[in-house]
Structures are given as C-alpha cells and as structure tokens.
Amino acid sequence: MTAKQMLAQRARSVEEYLSQCLEERGIPARLLESMRYSLLAGGKRLRPVLALSWCELLGGDAEAAMPFAASLECIHTYSLIHDDLPAMDDDDLRRGRPSNHKQFDEATAILAGDGLLTEAFVLMTEAGVKGGLAADRVLRAVNVLGRAAGSGGMVGGQAVDMEFTGREGQVPLEELQQMHAMKTGALITAACECGAILSGAPDEDVRNAREYGRAVGVAFQIVDDVLDVVGDEATLGKPVGSDEEQGKSTYPALVGLDKSRELARGHVDGAVGHLCGYHGPESEFLTLLARYIVDRVY
Amino acid sequence: MTAKQMLAQRARSVEEYLSQCLEERGIPARLLESMRYSLLAGGKRLRPVLALSWCELLGGDAEAAMPFAASLECIHTYSLIHDDLPAMDDDDLRRGRPSNHKQFDEATAILAGDGLLTEAFVLMTEAGVKGGLAADRVLRAVNVLGRAAGSGGMVGGQAVDMEFTGREGQVPLEELQQMHAMKTGALITAACECGAILSGAPDEDVRNAREYGRAVGVAFQIVDDVLDVVGDEATLGKPVGSDEEQGKSTYPALVGLDKSRELARGHVDGAVGHLCGYHGPESEFLTLLARYIVDRVY
Fold first, then answer.
1. What does the H/E/C string look like for A140-160?
2. pLDDT at B245
3. pLDDT tens, B149-164?
4. Element housing A6 (H / E)
5. How far from chain centre, in Å, is Cα B13?
6. Cα–Cα distance, B161 to B181 (Å, whole number)
7. DSSP single-letter state for residue A41
8. Of A6, A295, B42, B136, which shows the fewest CB atoms inside 10 Å?
9. Ranges of H-type helices in chain B
10. Is the per-residue pLDDT at A279 higher than 80?
C-alpha cells in the first residue's frame, strides 16, 4: 500500500468518529448543521492520523486516543472557518464548496468556529474522564495542544499573517518562517507530540515526535506554497496562483521554485531522521507519510 | 462588610492574576494588546469569584484553583467580544468604552476572542500540570466547563438568541428561559460546579454547587433584563431601554416588572436553599452574593 492509500484508510476511521462526535450534545439544529458542514467537508485528516500513528508507534492505545485525535480536526476546521470570514481572508470557496459564511451567514460561521473550538477541548478530555487513558497524560496533552492552538501558536500566526497582508513589499524569509511555524506548524507539531504523550512514552520519545512534527510542518507549508504555483486547480479545490495575485510572500516568491522544493526535501529528511530509532509498520508509515507530503509537488 | 464590598475585594485578587496570566506566551504584540484591552476592562469577576468561593467553602485549595477561576473570565470576555461583532449584535460600546472591533478592527477582534477562548483551556490545565491539584479533578472540571461554554451551552445560546432576533413577535417565556439557561446560565452554573469539583468534595456537594449556580444564573438574567428598563445608564455603562427598542423578548416585556422581580427573588431563595447544609464565612458570603444580585434592581 502507498502512503496515500494508508493515509486514506486511516482517515476513514477518523471520518467515522467525526461524523458522530457532535451528537447528543444539545446543539441547536442550524448551528450543528453548520459545524458539520465544515467538519465533514473532506480533507486528508493529516493531524488526527499523525497523532494516532505516533501513539501507536510508541505502544499506546490508539483507539482510546481517537477522541483526542478528532479534536485536532475540530481545531483545524474552526481555524479555516474563521480565516475565510470577510474580515479575515474573505474567501468564498473552501474545498470546492461555498465557505461556511457563504453557505450559512457570518454570525453562524463565527459561532460554528467558536463551537468547534470549544467542543475540541471537550473531546480531548473525554478519554481521560470516561476512562481509558490516565488523567495526567491527557491533561498534559490538553495543555500542549492548547498552547499550540492559542495566541502564541495558531491564532497568533493568523494575526501575524494579517499584519503581513497589510505590509508593502515582500516579508523576509525568517519572519515568514516564524509566522508559518505558528500558523500551521504548531498544530502539526502538537499532533505528533500529543500522540506521544498519550502513549505514556518517556520524554525522549516525546521529543522525537515533536521534532518530526516540526520538520513535517515546515515541509508541508513549503509544499502548500509550491502547489499554489504549479498545482492543479481541480485537485486542490481552490484557485491556483491566488498567492501571487494577492502579492503574498511565499517560499517560491522568496527563494524560487527549485530552492523551495530542495528546502522541503531537506525538512522531510530531517523528519525521517527522528524515526531512525523505531521499527515496524508504524515507523514505515510515518516515513512514507513524510515523503508523500513532498512528493505531491513533483 | 457588605456582599458588594466582599465581591470587590475578591475580584481584586482575580484582577491581579488576570493582569499577568497572558505574559510569556509569545503572543504577537497587537493581538496581546487587544486581548488585554477587553480582559482588563473591569467587570464584577462574578464567575471566578463563584468558583473560588465554592472551592473554599468545600475545603478546597482556592489558591491552586485561581488559574482555573481566571479561565472563566477569559471565556466570558471572549463571548462578549464575539457577541459585539457587526455580524452579531453589532455593539459599538462595551462597559462605556469602544467595543474590541471598534478599538482595533474586526479581524483582530475575532482573533482576540479565539485567543482568549483557547488560552482559557490552557489556564484550566495549568494547576493540574504544574502540580497543586489532582489531574483527574482538573480534567473532570475542564470537561464540565467545556460543555457549558460550547455549542450545547453558551455558544448554542447565542445562536438561539440570534434566531430569536430575526423572528416576528415575542418569544414564549419557556423558550426564552431555555435560551438564557444556555447563553448565560451554563457558564455561571459551571463556575460553581467546577469550584466544587476542584475541591474534591463528594458528588452531593457538587450537586448543591450546580443547583445554586443554576438558580443564581436565572436570577442574574432576570435582573439584567429588569435593569435594562429601570437601571441607570452611567452605572451600567450601556444604554438603557435598548432591549425594548430592539423589540427583544425579555422578562419585563413578557411578565411585567413586578412579576419579574418576584421571579428573581424566588430563584435567589432557591439558591440560598442549597447552602443550608453549610456554615462559616464562605456560606454567608455565597448567601449574601445571591441576595445582592437581586438587590441591584431595588
């Protein structure tokens, strides 16, 4: 099986969990519809799969970690809903369909985002409260994921990105990297780290998971920028060339396409390096997954 | 000391904690400024004080519970920022100052809200992660507070309220009560319940805390409606009579002023009833606090 096929297979079990995780919470009908509209709009489910795979690799109970893994997708989805709002990136399309505020309305989209973010934390705690995982591990993982998703992480990264948009000229590479590390890197890193924490593995393994995640996160962002230049509109579900049109600072704009690809490959090699102490199918999968992320641009 | 003075005294220690709880998180400057602008804009700090008082009443470590208590104010503040947005209630003023999106801009206000909500969950976990409180208690409290703040609670209540606004004619009392129970009641209830959970008290005490909170929450909302009719604009920091102007369904509009006051008093008596098994200064304070909430309308 290729990494893509394995990813798709694992994504399906996440999908199944996501499709019922908002039931029986007394959510008003229209709000629930809007939350589900975005949560179940497809996507690779990369973050939950990373968390589950690291948990499994380190001998943890991946099944018990499923609610926690699903929470990563709730957080990712809420961030997309809020980023698409007219006051933010003002995007009418997301994954080839109307964005949440276009399909519903702005107020509902804001609340759907708020709701998904809050339910994410409820999901994180479920495994610890209902049994299955030790409370101290879960609590530590909630802390790590909260910091990554918060104003010093993902939310902060979006704020910096908004500031960049209002600025004249290109943003220096270093600042761009720092912004991406917050906006997209932090959540991917936390996914791997939390999977490791939930497995109960020692700190050294947690560190490997974190560093793997960090490297994969950087590569992922570079590839995203490259795909905006060379990608296929139908496959991506969004217009190609929009970054350049909007005068956005990107890796290809700053260092060129070839150098961007080279950088991405370097980060993937770095990520794979953190797997050298592990063996078996999970280690192989995480290796393939890292490589697959870069292969998408060739 | 009156309840008002005691509340103010306790609020000061919460205030002190809030003023430094967002430091050293790597939050971008403008985003941090905007989060602090709303978080430190005054307010009674009722929810944190309720949590700390119930924790103390049941023999818990109120000092260790402070980060958790502060998280309640972060959640309350984020909800006000998002509720004020143009797409929601479109309020230009909050506590006598420009609302967050007026002082900064819409994108920053959305992100400040997202940031405060996420940091709230980080704060909740702090006491358990850094030691001081047992992880299983903290985790259970995070679960309870998350549900109360989420789409089946506060966020859901705001969604229902938005639906009411678009509706012709008055909303039936029963539906109004259900909306308020979600929009404002859930968080006040959770404040009391979580304080009890963090103290490690048995389920019966947790139930008393919850029922006290539920009753106080209902009384609080009725009083809020009454104050919009008879209150003093300068004291409230917002225009009086705005509910009627906007054709909002309120307790006074549905059952009249006298009956509203009577209802509020009844709920306060109910709240105090849940304190009858407890003695000492904390029990007295929680009794006074419940009565003070209603006294504001006389």
1. HHHHHHHHHHCCCCHHHHHHH
2. 74
3. 999 999 999 999 999 9
4. helix A3-20
5. 17
6. 11
7. S
8. B42
9. 3-20, 29-39, 46-57, 66-84, 100-103, 106-129, 135-149, 154-165, 173-180, 186-199, 203-230, 233-236, 242-245, 251-255, 257-273, 281-295
10. yes
Contact status, residue B257 vs residue B226, Cβ threshold 8 Å: yes
Interface test with B, best of A32, A74, A104, A155 (most B CBs within 10 A): A155
Sole residue written with tokens 């500031």:
A163
Mean pLDDT of all residues belonging to chain B: 93
Enumerate domains of chain B plus CATH numbers: 3-295 (1.10.600.10)
d(CA B264, CA B292): 11
Q: E strands of A187-297, at which residues?
A: none
Interface test with A, best of B38, B104, B121 (most A CBs within 10 A): B121
CA distance A177 to chain B (A): 15
- CB under 8 Å to B58, separation ≥6 — which residues? B195, B196, B199, B200, B201, B205, B209
Distances in Å between the alpha carbon of A95 and those of A196, B257, B284? 30, 52, 57
Going B26 to A87 to A219 to A13, the CA torsion angle's sign is positive
Residue with tokens 């217009």: A239
In this structure, the strands spanning A93-94 and A97-98 are antiparallel
Interstrand relation of B93-94 and B97-98 (parallel, antiparallel or unpaired): antiparallel
Q: How far away is chain B from the Cα of A296, in angstroms, using its nearest Cα?
A: 32
Residue B246 in this model has a pLDDT that exceeds 80: no
- For residue A64, what pLDDT band results from cuts at 50, 70 and 90? very high
Interchain contact, B31 vs A155, CB within 8 Å: yes
Burial (Cβ within 10 Å: 0-12, 13-18, ≥19) of residue A134: middle
**Residue of chain A nearest B31, judged by CA positions:** A159
Beta carbons of B236 and B157 less than 8 angstroms apart: no
Whether the CB-CB separation of B186 and B153 falls below 8 Å is answered with yes
Selected residue of A81, A91, A100, A110 to mutate for chain B interface (largest B Cβ count, 10 A) = A110
What CA–CA distance (Å, rounded) separates A48 from B165? 38
Q: Which residues on chain A are in Cβ contact (under 8 Å) with B113?
A: 114
On whether the CB atoms of residues B123 and B21 are closer than 8 A, the answer is yes
- Residue A38 — left, alpha, or beta (φ > 0 → left; ψ -120 to 50 → alpha)? alpha
Query: What length is written for chain A?
Result: 298
| % residues pLDDT > 90 (chain A) | 82
CB spacing of A22 vs B151 below 8 angstroms: yes
Coil, helix or strand at residue B104: coil
E strands, A2-96, in order: 93-94
Instruction: List residues bridging with A93 in a β-sheet.
Output: A98
Quick one: which of B187, B180, B157 has its CA closest to B254?
B180
Do residues B183 and B82 make contact, with C-beta atoms less than 8 angstroms apart? no
How close A215 gets to chain B, by Cα (Å)? 20
